[in-house]
Amino acid sequence: MKVTHKSFKKKILLVNPPVLSVLEPWYDAPDFPRTALACLAAYVVHKNPDIEVHCIDAKLDRLNFDETLQRILNHQPDYVGLTAFTNEIKPAAYLAGLIKRNDSTIITICGGAHITAIPEFTMNEFPTFDIGVIGEGEQTLSELLIALNIGKDMDAVKGIIYRSGNDLHKTSPRNRLLDLDDLPMPAWHLMPPAKEYFIQSERGCPFACIFCLNHNGKVARKRGVEKTLDEMEWLIDYGAKRISFGDELFSVDMVRAEKILDGIIERGIGLRVSWDIQTHVAFVNDNLFKKMKMANIAKCEMGVEAGDGETLKRMGKATNRKMIIDAFRLADKHNVVTGSFFILGQPNETYKTIWETIKLGISINPKEPIFGTMVPYPGTEVAKMAAEGKNGLKLVSTDWDEYRKQLNGSMELENISRTKLEWLQIFGFVIVFLANLRLLDFLKFFWIYRKGALKLLSKAISGKKTTTGLSENPKDYESVINSPFKLSKFDIITARESWKNYQSVEVQNAKRLKPELLKEQMPV
Questions:
Q1: Given this model, what pLDDT does residue 179 score?
Q2: Prediction pTM value
């Protein structure tokens, strides 16, 4: 492909890479732009006036790799920033490799949850990345661009890992922002217009769920109520039909959550847009559900994860069956529509514990019961257990393309085959509806998610442990990625300990600088 001469002003292109194939449409072909790109773009625009910023959301625009590459080259960027969760890291590395093959002068920068959890391993595995951003990216990317532009020593930029010859250099960690009001509103105008948006009014979750990396940290950090409401109104004027709060735990500060609900009611926001949240069963009460209904909430999603009492105790989520049932009953009392998440394949999982989970799903009867299977994301306690072969878990693969939430081949159980687990997953989806005599709701649910459902059914019928054959990889996929390194089980085990230390430092920092945040994230 032809590359023309670049302009004098430095340019960065922030990219959400394409997918190999659409296996899970709600993730692979979203109707909303990537929030991270809008946040990063806004901060760079605000702090780096000498940098020209553009965004490409290949998933939202339904671009393949060739189309994405051509758009990138047409922009003639100096830097390309790629964001990636674990299941997206190889496509990101492949795109970075294609960029390098066409213009080796472009500096490729990778950020996101995966490289944050295992920075050295990621850079060793994927030589197509020049620089990695560890943790929250706004301040780090801004300072990195300044250093690159003036030729400053990158060792002074906190929170990065970069190549120097054949060596990797990792700088000192960057503390997370404790006040999100220090950030500008996301630059949604630089993203493709959409009907749906995910906004973040807070980052972080105080719990220690064994299956969750919790990449935003264990201290919930928040934006102001008025700024949150202003962003919602801006998006409505921009054409949004649905706004979802991407907060890990919307009501983690229950006093603040009530103020947001009051603002939505006062401004009539819920009458102009469909909106929904995710939260925890310990962080809801009668008054919050009452105000959610008054604010015309479309859906309140709450993580259930399991139905077995002992499993819930060991999970790190600080819940029990009574708390879960009470929370959903309160929602029903106020006619608040609910969604729930269940994970099959827990440590020490048996047919009995799976049945307890499904029975709990039938009992709470959410409008949308979402059943996934356990994924051993690097940095989590579950990944460590699976690598060690403990608690009935077995790590099958460190091919990150297998690390999807619904369709994955990353891990299996000692006592239940991968295929049987998937049939139980399918059964869970179906029986919650049928046991509650909701045939019409089931048909609507199936129609909405039919593409992903048929992929899951196809995999279960095939009996394959992995997703190989469900997606079509480019012929040069592995050669362009050119990975000289694969993680060992020992690497997965040590990654967990490193991540725990990283999280511990963050909590201590918050205690020292802003202890009120820890008090505010207690249920009232």
A1: 96
A2: 0.95
